[in-house]
Structures are given as C-alpha cells and as structure tokens.
Amino acid sequence: MVSKLIKYDFQSFIRLILPVQLIVIGIAALNRIVQLFEPASIGVDASEASRNAHAVYNTFFVSSMVLYGIAIVTALILTVIVAIVRFYQGMYTNEGYLNHTLPVTPAQHIFAKLLNSLIFFVGTLFAIFLSFMVITLGEVNIEIFKAFGFLVGKFFSTAGAEGVLYIVEAGLLLLITLITMYLKLYFCISVGQFAKKRKILLAFGAFFGIYVAKQIIGTIFIAMVAIGANWIIELGEWFDNYSSAVHFVLWFGIVIYAIASVVYFALTRFIMGKKLNLT
User: Fold this and answer.
1) Dihedral sign computed on CA atoms, order 233, 238, 243, 246
2) Cα torsion angle, 218, 224, 257, 72, sign
C-alpha cells in the first residue's frame, strides 16, 4: 500500500512539476538560439546598421537571461510550494478523509510525501543543470569542464584522500538540511490544524515562531562567543592545526539537523495520529 501511495503522489507531482522543469530548459534553449544571432564585433567606426544590430541583439539576450533567471527561481519556489500543497491536500482536506482510512500509518504517509518532495527537488536542480549546459553549449561548455576539472584536481591535491570524505559529508549535510526543511513545513501545516478557522494562518504563525526561536538561540550563541573570546581563540588554533576540524564542523551540522528532523517528524506524526482534525 505504501508503494501505491508513493506512486500516486509521484504522478501528482510529475503533472505539476515536470512542465515547470521543461519550461526552464525551454527558456535556456531560447537563450541559446538568441546567442546564435550574435553580430560580429564592431569598432569605433562601425556603421549605424551594425550598432543597431548590436542593440537589438543585446536587448533580446539580456531579456532572455532575465527570463531564465526568473524561471530558475520560480521553478525552485514552485517545487517547494507543490510539496507543501500536496501534503496539505493529502492529509488535511477532503482527500485526507480517504488517505487516513487506508492501512497506512502516519509515519508512512509522511515518508511517502517526503520521498517524492526530495525526488522532485533534486529533479528540479538537475533540470536547472541541464538548462545551464544548454545555454553554454559549445566551446563555453568545454572551458567550464576544464575549469571544473582543474578545481577538482586542486582540491584533491590539497585534501588528499580526505577529499572524498569531505564530499560525502557535505552531500549528507545538504540532504539532511533539505529533509529538515520539508519536515519543518509539514510540522507547521500540522500545527495549523489545531485552529478551527484560519488554519493556514496558524501554520504561518508556527513557522514564524520557529524562525524567531532560532534567531533568539543564534543571538544567545553569538553573545556566548563574544563573552568566551579566549576559547574561541583556542578553537581557532585547533582549526589551524587539525584537518579533522572540518570533519567536526560538517558532522556537527549533520547531527544538529538530524535531531531537528527527528523532532519535526515525531511531532508531525503525533499530531496526525492523536490530534487529527479534519473539520
């Protein structure tokens, strides 16, 4: 049943997100076509026709680049919004009445929504990467890969074998950060169900409350850092002397976000299992 639930959500996601991803790639292709009409370089004594041609080209090129940038931002935002809407509709609207009668636990519902959210967010990132490859198609592509290869070689020559660990740890940190983001949004939506009216408003309030709490904790931490300047200096010396400090920072972030994910997941599951309110 869980696999069927994931498949159903996947189909809903793909109907909403795939067109957006294709639009991003399409706008990139449009930009690349515009580049094909780039006029030859002109000198000081160029004719008025040549100057006009350059002006027209620049207008179309800049416009297509602006449109491309807007498309990227829109695609990322819509991918997150669709995930939020799918969770809300599937759990707390009329659709929720049906879903909660299925032989599926709240934890499995959350997992199904989260898995598809992650898949399509990564898919949107991949679509953006493909669109970038389309825009830079040709000699620019080759130069980019050369530069990337040079930077990778430089990185591993400095980091050595530990470079692989750095990449794995950084990738894990990015993944757990993304998971935490979605689980926090699910939690806020679930908190909103405690309100008899204006549930979405309460969900926004929960999100804002978490944001304020994080800012307070961050301010307290900064104050502690300012007060304990001596141990900060000692920590800086430790960072200079031990490469393992980088691993420590990455794993510290992983652990913190993992704890937050577990808390958001547990609270959302509790609300869905014990405090469900679909009225």
Assistant:
1) negative
2) positive
Residue ranges of the chain whose pLDDT lies below 50: none
Q: Which of 102, 80, 73 is nearest to 90 (CA)?
A: 102
85-134 tens-digit pLDDT: 888 888 887 776 677 677 778 888 889 899 999 999 999 999 999 998 88
Please choose, from the candidates 177, 179, 187, the residue with its C-alpha nearest in 3D space to the C-alpha of residue 210.
Answer: 187
Residues 6+ apart with CB under 8 A from 138: none
DSSP symbols for 179-238: HHHHHHHHHHHHHGGG-SS-HHHHHHHHHHHHHHHHHHHHHHHHHHHHHTHHHHHHHHHH
Sequence-distant (6+) residues with CB within 8 A of 135 are 28, 31, 32, 35, 68
Kindly list the distances between the CA atom of residue 17 and the CA atoms of 63, 69, 121, 124, in Å, as whole numbers in the listed order: 24, 17, 9, 8
Cβ-based burial of 84 (10 A; exposed 0-12, middle 13-18, buried ≥19): middle
Please tell me the pTM assigned to this model: 0.80
DSSP code of residue 275? S
C-alpha–C-alpha distance, residues 203 and 154, integer Å: 47
Alpha helices in the chain (DSSP H): 2-35, 48-92, 94-99, 106-135, 139-159, 162-191, 199-227, 229-241, 244-274
